[in-house]
Amino acid sequence: MKELSKKLFTSSHESAPTPILADTDNFSANPAFDQVLALRLSRRAVLQGGMAAAAALYFGSSAMLRSAHADDQPAGPSLKLKFNAVVKNKDDKITLPAGYSWSILLATGDPLAAHISPYANDGTDAANSFRQRAGDHNDGMHFFGMDKEGKWDPQSAERGLLCINHEAITAAFLHQQGQTIVDGKRTSDAEVMKEMLAHGMSVVEVRRNGKTFSVVKNSRWNRRITTFTDMKITGPAARSPQLITKYSLTATRTRGTLANCANGHTPWGTYLTCEENWAGFFRRTPADDAKRSANELVALKRYGLNGKGKELWATVEPDTADNRFGRWHAANTGTSNDGSDDYRNAANTYGWVVEVDPFNPDSTPKKRTALGRFAHEGAWPGPVFTGQPLVWYMGCDSRHEYIYKYVSSALWDPKDANGGLAAGDKYLNDGKLYVARFNADGSGVWLELCMGKNGINTDSVPYNFKDQADVLINARLAADAAGATKMDRPEWGAVNPRNGEVYMTLTNNALRALDKVDAANPRYYNDPKNGVAQKGNANGHIIRWAEQDALPNATSFEWDVFLFAARENADPATVNLSALSSDNDFSSPDGLWFANSGLLWIETDDHTYTDVSNCMLLAAIPGKVGDGQSRTIINTDGDKLNTINTHIGATLGEEKLRRFMVGPVDCEITGLAESPDGRALFVNIQHPGETTSGKNFSLNDPATWLSHWPAGGTSRPRSATIVIT
Ligand code: FEO
Ligand code: CA
Ligand code: CA
What we know:
This protein is α+β, with helices and mostly antiparallel strands. The radius of gyration is 24 Å and the shape is globular.
């Protein structure tokens, strides 16, 4: 095993420099991640320790969470951070506290099959090879432990399937000379093919390799899911006339998944990959407007389906017989009344939560329409209790968009664990979809998105809903009608295993206006960068809520703001409200993830504070909703004032919030997973050196590239999953 893994590791990274391979010869046992925390065991901790609290997610009772929630502190041992904060920096490398090391697990283009050659990373790798290479822009991910029979085993820490999203591409570095575009059209089929295949997600088998993990290159579970993978459409919107395309006259299938940002998982061992910024990939120019109804135009505008298409995939001529390019043209170009001869409805088949069974490589992924259609960041499961509904929390990541919750109709039966996509049919095809309203007094309400309720009707203005399928397809419009609270770009959510409270990042919102702040999105300020104004909520915040009576399917909750991101030197009365210091200041929280211990990890996707530091990973020890106080903020812009009252959690200070890692230049830190024994942390370094436009960039001059991570020298930068031990 040791020799095999070493061989695999070296062969897949033989051109990589020493730092990536460092420590692979050191097979000494390393401490579990939770040993960064000193555990001061109290009597209650013995009863409700971190592992017990984690187990509660699958086997506990809501009463246990309720008691934890009602007490002064979340259940479990007291936690303490035991590493020294990493200093902010703009170095083109990974910076970790002393005593921690990292290695590359899977970088852009790495082979997922033994016969695929190592990635050349110079644009010469064949397009079709990406059917068995890692895609680009690694994002959300989840570790599924696997037993000897190849079944899901949440306790297995030696071997598992890692599901990794590939959200987007840095196109310039995928091709020898960047994208070929002539007169606004793509002229190379091969380039577009490679781009379409570099999106989606990967399933890879990973095995412990000494301290760290490595990919099993010839595993039968390794799989790429791309924009070409056949998908079933399930749930209430399946068979809706609004989902008919030339690809599926019955509106029960679509081709591919795209813009797979964050993720989720299920208590039956399947993966949820979520479609976020898909709308921009569809081409729909103004000529199409005349062929659409007034109602359709409202929906197309609300979802941003107006443009040339982000990568111009629809412009390749001639198209193939299977319309692999033309399917990105979401326009009425046919002669049918129902869209059965074109792709006018293609965009309605994107924007969903997609369920993938990693343990069944031949299974067809299922788009779960009951969870609504929007710019899905991810889908995070709430606490799981036998005999109660299952819950997922979701964010729609755009400025002024909403936070959603799905509650299953079926009640959880532990016999469904390992039930695969059939269990998904039971729990994810039938349920209630809610959207959040955050009240000024610190209370909140879940508003059901249901035909005939909350202002959602056939005569709603501006959009007339036809039926419940239409409500789910146009969930954003339904949420508008219901009166949801417009948030500062909801990104990741995470549920505290100790008390069931839900945290969600609101990454930033440049459109937040001085006169439009509210209690849950209370800041308007200027955070200048290199002398250029950045107004609105430039740095973002993290909100959290506690469901009424700790019941995940409650329809009301209490909330406060867990953390306000800010520069350490920003005004403490209006901007740096969480009293951040040099050890823990940050901007634009995005990824968010709870370890079993109750430790919260925060990742940033920042463009605001990057004059001072690259993106980072921080560790926090959270308290609970209501542990702080109400606070009045006076927002200003010149001589204009707006006073707002908000609710803010207890100040953490450097004792409970510390920077753990800083990434390379021009990257985003995203995706988090942990081996079940807590000894290895998987983190994604997404798009280092992604800025490939502007006069300061030339593909022919590596000196103009912002990053050469991970291989260094004059190499092209690559996204990668790293393992920290
Ligand atoms: Fe893809 Fe919302 O970050
Ligand atoms: Ca994200
Ligand atoms: Ca982001």
